[in-house]
Amino acid sequence: MKSLLSAASALAIFAASPITPAHAEEKSAWRLFVSDHAQPIVHAIDMETGHKIDTFTIKAPTSLYRSDSGRTVFALQGKGDVISALSSGISFGDHGDHGDIDVEAPKLLDISFEGKKPSHFVDHDGDIALFFDGEGKARVTREADILEGKPAIREVATDAPHHGVAIALGDHVLVSEPNAEKPDELPVGIRVVDRSGASVGDLHECPDLHGEASSGNLIAVACAKGLLVMSVGKGAPAIDLLPYAGLPEGKSTTLVGGRGLQYFLGNYGPSAVVLIDPKSENAFRLLELPTRRVHFAVDPVRAKFAYVFTEDGSLHRIDVVAAKLDGSLKLTEPYSMDGHWSDPRPRIAVAGDRIVVSNPLKGLLHTIDAETFEQTADIAVEGRPFNLVAVGGSGETH
């Protein structure tokens, strides 16, 4: 009897005592993935130290895209007829009151997606759509399946090869409609198809379709006369045309979506950008630039800001709330927009508290303090560093 009472007393004391969680430390990790303009390689750089972690050899020079989660980086090799996938090595777990971060070595996954002339990558909530211009087909899969090494793929075919795009939304896929008479020209609209491949509703007209982005629960596709804006919820998306209003003659052909604030940033003519709030009465606000535009990006950490690089070698910070330039910083020698559209020119990425601008002709990555908007250290990269993708964040490690 005595031993039973002692055991019960010990259990009571244990139950009444607070349970101390495993020791946790706050950790930040940011990585930059950099493709070369001419060589079939991708560098992974630790942004905390500026040192290269690894270099991955692929089939052809590539454009880089990151998944929404940041766990995967995709290398679209248009001249290699393949898309490679890399694990960034950084992942996060949500525990309600805090998030955990797990950091491992980045690696080139033993998974690739082959097809003629891959051109577009779109991720929406882990549903990934890869479009192949040379086939006029999209391949749709899930990021989780890719990371497990078992990607289930479903194909969505259009009527002809064309420079198109697809957006996967659960049971539905939005896919571009080729120009029936001239399929080598830009698409003419968006069609919604279900899992069986059957069309849902009518064609949504969008002449000169080029440019797609998402922000919050909205997706926008740029057209000749305005944007197709889609509200994502249960079932097929609601799609409406938002005509360009109060703007001079022109159109957007590239869009990026705001983070933290719901808006879109697009090009509009060679030396201007346009801020787009589809839910505002004054949906379009045009911002003229000092010279022609080279590249632009939004800040996913400081939602109020976006950045644009111009051909005079300057980086400009955009206050998206006030719709004005509120800072400029000379970084490079001029990069003229004359010449071929694919010539090596700077690109922008935001890695936590640092803005990074590639300088391919000098073999440098320029870093800028995002708080002070002042240039800090340069990172030397052999070759011609070109496309940039930043992945990372902060969390607890146990």
Automatic annotation (TrEMBL):
<dbReference type="InterPro" id="IPR015943">
    <property type="entry name" value="WD40/YVTN_repeat-like_dom_sf"/>
</dbReference>
<keyword id="KW-0732">Signal</keyword>
<protein>
    <recommendedName>
        <fullName>Zinc transport system substrate-binding protein</fullName>
    </recommendedName>
</protein>
<feature type="signal peptide">
    <location>
        <begin position="1"/>
        <end position="24"/>
    </location>
</feature>
<dbReference type="InterPro" id="IPR047697">
    <property type="entry name" value="AztD-like"/>
</dbReference>
<dbReference type="InterPro" id="IPR011044">
    <property type="entry name" value="Quino_amine_DH_bsu"/>
</dbReference>
